[in-house]
Specification:
The protein has one domain: Glutaredoxin, CATH 3.40.30.10. 51% of the residues lie in helices and 12% in strands. The protein contains 9 helices and 4 strands, in the order ααααβαβαββααα. Strands 2-1-3-4 form a 4-stranded mixed β-sheet, with helices on one face. Helix 5 links the parallel strand 1 and strand 2. The two termini are 15 Å apart. The model has no long low-confidence stretch (mean pLDDT 96).
């Protein structure tokens, strides 16, 4: 993990909470815009689809016994900063889960959303194998403002689906990859994400 980025209370407090982020995205879409530097029509369509995904997930996600038991181990406040963009399908599938976990922490996790393109130095400090992959979760200790761990951009089964797509040499189209990926998310019902985050909480 690259620790070159210096976190500050001012930086963190200026990042929106989940509900404020959702409201901001909705307002952008109403003006024909999305987050980030790419304002193409396709990215706007992805964003509109992701709003529907997040609305559905907000209503259906249930925390597992595993993550709830892990949350009981938390002592003191941590910030969960998630690097995201509204057009990203993985972000739409994962960030609502993180929000539910933060809600279930009894105030010990403060979730904030950071735009990837708006925060290039932050993104550069938390690359995934050299790539600006999102979502990227960074856990910050509230007392020391030091990064304790990071996670992302996908749970392991979803990473494997992406690797199959990359190694298929065109045999799997981008459209089919998207179908396969989001079908997996729907079938998994956030279990893998919750398990991986529970394991991280326990290990740190």
């Amino acid at each position: 993990m690259d620790h070159s980025f210096t976190f500050s209370n001012v930086f963190i407090e200026n990042l929106p909470h989940y509900k404020a982020y959702r409201k901001h995205v909705q307002e952008l879409v109403s003006r024909g815009l999305t987050t980030g530097n790419n304002q193409s029509e396709s990215y706007l369509k992805y964003t509109m689809l992701n709003i529907q995904r997040m609305e559905r997930l907000d209503k259906t996600i249930r925390l597992t016994d595993d993550i709830q038991s892990a949350l009981l181990l938390l002592s003191g406040l941590s910030y969960w900063i998630v690097i995201s963009e509204a057009w990203c399908g993985d972000c739409a599938q994962i960030i609502p889960v993180m929000y539910k976990i933060a809600e279930g922490s009894g105030g010990k996790i403060d979730l904030r959303i950071a735009g990837r393109d708006d925060n290039p130095e932050l993104m550069s400090a938390f690359l995934t194998q050299g790539a600006r992959a999102i979502p990227k979760l960074i856990c910050i200790d509230a007392d020391t403002l030091q990064a304790r761990y990071s996670w992302g951009p996908r749970p392991l089964p979803a990473i494997k689906i992406h690797e199959q797509f990359r190694q298929s040499n065109g045999a799997i189209t981008k459209e089919q990859f998207d179908i396969n990926l989001h079908k997996w998310y729907a079938q998994d019902k956030s279990i893998a994400i919750q398990q991986e985050l529970a394991d991280l909480i326990r290990s740190k």
